[in-house]
Structures are given as structure tokens and as C-alpha cells.
Specification:
Shape: globular
Radius of gyration: 16 Å
CATH superfamily: Response regulator
Number of domains: 1
Number of helices: 5
Strand order of the largest sheet: 2-1-3-4-5
Mean pLDDT: 88
Amino acid sequence: MNSKPHVFAVDDDALVLKSLCALLGTHGFDVTGFNSAEMFLDSADLGAIGCVITDLRMPGMNGEQLQAHLADIGSSLAVVVVTGHADEPTAMELIGNGAVTVLDKPYTCADLLSAVESAIHQSQMRQSRKPDRPGCQPMPGRADG
């Protein structure tokens, strides 16, 4: 597993995806783009430290379903949802289910970069709390570890 944070962008709109990847790349992020949630799940390192920027509405698995799947498998990747279609209750539900934030399209560069930084920090915190790290297992026969 690579310890350097990575940004995964997931959007079915090829122009939006290309623009998003270019923007993040020019700001020094390692970024990989995917045209669908299914392609992302098939190809990405789900154990990586970093974040997923996903569109809410996509054919097939949507952004909300992708977020739920990552939570179900215990991925450390934090999720930023971008959408042109969220109302306040939907945004609150997404955040309540673990999204770092929901950005309404069109969003500013500053808002996106801030969300990515927050998501990466959250991912690093999640990874550091995982019990499978060396040195975090209690010794056999000892309850105090």
C-alpha cells in the first residue's frame, strides 16, 4: 500500500473529469480519474490513504452508493461528493453517512482544494486508528496490550 495520499476522481462526464484531474494535478496531488464507480472499485487501491471525489448522480452506482460501499468495506478513503442536484436534506444525509462535505456545482477551486485537504486528513486519521497496524495488537495472554 502506498503511504502517499492519493485523490481518486469519479465522474461520468468526461470533460468534468478531465478538468478535475488537471486542476488537482496542477496543485500537486496524485490523482486518477474514473468514468464510473464500478471502474473505480475494480481498479483503485481501496486501502490507500486519500480521498474520493465523486459525482452524486451517475449511471449505475451513484455517489451515495459508492460512499456507502466504501464505508461497508472499512476503506480509509474519505469521500467528497460534488453535485448540481443536492438539496439540504440530501446533503445532510450524505454528511451524516460520512461524506466530508457536499460541494454544489459550480464550486470554487478554493472550496474543492479545502475539501480535498480535509478529506486526506480524515483518511490519515482513519488509517492510523486501524487495528491491523504493527504494534497495535495486544500480546497473547495480556489484556493491557
